[in-house]
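User: Okay, second chain of the day. Same drill as before: sequence in, structure tokens out.
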Amino acid sequence: MTDPLAVFDTVIELARRAVLALTAVLFGIFLIDWLVRTRRLSPFGGVARFFRRVVDPLLEPVERRVVRAGGLPSAAPWWALVAAAAGGILVLLLLQAARGVIVEAMLYGHSARGLYHLFVQWTAGILQFALIVRVVASWLRLSYSRWVQWSVTLTEWLLRPLRRVIPPFGMIDVSPIVAIFALWIAEAVLLGIW
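Assistant: Same drill. Structure tokens below.
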């Protein structure tokens, strides 16, 4: 019987290599597309026609967002590369977090006390992460995006009462910071009980 952590470590290593290889391939593709878009390669050659026919339709959503934000359409390949690399890094971070969850479950999940500690730690961690996502989304003006709506749903019960008591300082809402500190204190108290 194989060790589940060894299998998970192998999956993580394969994912790292896949993300690196995919990023390298996309760099090459997007470099050529950028060269075609900026006319550094002949727009009438076979390579340019292929990229306009195959790659440009795939980059069209990225190009629309870049142009709406005030950028040049020729920058779309680079923004697509940044998004792909960030997505790969996010996948790797999620795999590492899942490995940490498996390790914690293996170490602490054999008793009722261990399960209680895991539940308290994971609940506090998820709520703190949701608060951070909500704050960053407000900075990027994505507060009502469907991608961050889950964080609003998870944290509104905590932030609404704090906002009634704590006034904003100018344009800065400090209630998420107070909520994170309250979660730390609540986690410490709950873990100290048992």
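The chain is about 80% helix and 0% strand.

User: Thanks, on to the next one.
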